[in-house]
Amino acid sequence: MSENRVNFKNQNIIIEDRSKIKITGVEQVDSYNETTIVLSTIKGGISIKGEGLNISNLNIDDGSLRISGMINSLTYISKEGTPKNLLGKIFK
Length: 92
Fold this sequence. Notes:
By secondary structure, the protein is mainly beta. The protein has one helix spanning about 85-90; strands at about 15, 20-25, 25-30, 35-40, 45-60, 65-75.
């Protein structure tokens, strides 16, 4: 049985005025609160830090994510370095 998942080839990030960010190639959001959003993309993990962060649009089917709020930093996390689930985080 085949999986209904779309294979993404590109991962793009567009930041507008440090208050809006659009990311493509998103596979899942790992954690989220007002100051930190951690997500997995086809190119590895990304950690976004800021103030008043809000996910305004998430579409896993086409791999797009929109975030609003004050964006202070964006950090790439290597694909090998990110645990994919809670058990991976506990036993790291």
